[in-house]
Specification:
alpha+beta; Rieske Iron-sulfur Protein; Naphthalene 1,2-dioxygenase Alpha Subunit, Chain A, domain 1; 2 domains; eight-stranded antiparallel beta sheet; 9 helices; about 20% helix; about 25% strand; globular
């Protein structure tokens, strides 16, 4: 039996300075390699979205219907961006282990979240460094991680511990025998990971963290009865396009439109995120916002945060609905709803009163758009400068990542 004598040779903590308690992890150096072979490139009309929204045209319809863009996005976008995992209540005490497949059905990266004996959270590869077996198949409590294929063991921090049959192996063990650490970040109790992120975690959630620092996220409780997955027969980016503008609300969502004061609906754009603010039509349906917030005194019914490329964090007076859009095929997506309740007495009031109805209305319209963009008579459209700043920003980010 070979046992490792030295400590794990590298630290999991980034040298970057966290802001407002954000925890940031870094991974391996970024890979800038292109998916296209030399000489190939994206068509010009897909590469360029005019920065001036008044003149810009939308993405061409081929982006939503051509499988080459779908496959390209898996590697160039989804392995390069942060993704929501779950909440830290699932790994509350030392010894708890949570296996998680990152974007199951899309990039299918097997991960492990552990809380080790030092009470630290770790995000690790769930793949044994010997022959590639999946280490952990279900949530559990454990003192160590043992591969049931050939018996290799790891600590809860991912460091190699021992293995049988390697007594004669030269230069063994080495750092390569530890489980790979995966870039990891937390916002409140919400956990995120990335395969090879192109930007820092704080650049994604920092503005949201600052704006909503008054919310008691530790009191948000996951409600499985109000959480579910929806299958949408449409491209993942079409679903995001629809989320990123409130222009359609009066036409598609009559109940939601009645709960909001449409004339004060507004947008804020950040580097890798944006915010839509819905103002309550009924003052009793708004947040009770403290004086410490820049929004104090406003009748805000909902904060709708979009995080590039495929996450929606919707905050209501009752809690949060977190939505993750998982690409399954060029014309098929899964939208995962994670519901966290803070004040159950407010579930049936205001903009967050019937999230399921709003989702079904969105599905219906987005599925019709998916059929429409395949028409021989449609190529691309224009942006409303007043209402579609978020869609314009999204398309600029998409084309930037796909270069």
């Amino acid at each position: 039996m070979v046992q490792k004598k030295q400590l794990c040779p590298y630290s999991i903590l980034s040298s970057a300075k966290p802001r407002h308690g954000l925890k940031i992890r870094r991974g391996r150096p970024r890979n800038s390699g292109l998916l296209f072979s030399e000489g190939e490139s994206m068509p010009t009309e897909t590469r360029i979205i005019d920065k001036d929204i008044r003149r810009a045209q939308t993405l061409p319809s081929s982006f939503y219907a051509d499988s080459k863009y779908f496959e390209l996005a898996k590697e160039k976008i989804f392995t390069k961006t942060w993704q929501f995992i779950s909440d830290s209540d699932r790994v509350r005490v030392p010894g708890q282990v949570l296996p998680w497949t990152l974007l199951e059905g899309c990039i299918d990266e097997p991960l492990l979240i552990t809380r080790d004996t030092n009470d630290k959270l770790n995000c690790l590869s769930n793949v044994c460094t010997h022959r590639g077996n999946l280490l952990i198949e279900g949530e559990c409590h454990a003192q160590s991680l043992r591969c049931r294929y050939h018996g290799r063991r790891f600590g809860l921090d991912g460091c190699f511990s021992s293995t049988p049959g390697f007594e004669d192996a030269a230069d063994f063990p080495s750092a390569a025998d530890d489980l790979s650490r995966v870039p990891f970040g937390t916002f409140g109790k919400f956990m995120f990971a990335a395969v090879d992120p192109a930007f820092d975690f704080n650049d994604l959630v920092g503005e949201m963290q600052d704006r909503l620092s008054w919310m008691p996220f530790d009191q948000f409780v996951f409600d499985p009865a109000l959480s579910r997955d929806y299958i949408v027969q449409a491209n993942w980016a079409l679903y995001c396009d629809n989320y990123l503008e409130g222009f359609h609300i009066p036409y598609v969502h009559p109940a939601l439109a009645a709960a909001l004061d449409g004339k004060d609906y507004r947008y804020e754009l950040y580097r890798y995120a944006n915010l839509q603010i819905g103002i309550a039509a009924n003052p009793g349906d708004a947040f009770d916002i403290p004086k410490s917030s820049p929004d104090h005194g406003q009748l805000i019914a909902a904060y709708y945060y979009w995080l590039f490329p495929n996450m929606m964090f919707n905050f209501y007076p009752w809690g949060a609905s977190i939505n993750v859009v998982v690409p399954l095929a060029v014309n098929r997506s899964k939208v995962c709803y994670f519901t966290y309740v803070w004040d159950r007495s407010k579930l049936e009031i205001g903009a967050g009163a019937n999230v399921d109805r709003t989702e079904r209305e969105d599905e219906d319209i987005v599925e019709k758009v998916q059929k429409g963009v395949k028409s021989h008579f449609y190529s691309r459209g224009r942006y409303s400068p007043q209402h579609e700043q978020g869609v314009h920003q999204f398309h600029q980010l998409l084309t930037s990542f796909l270069q």
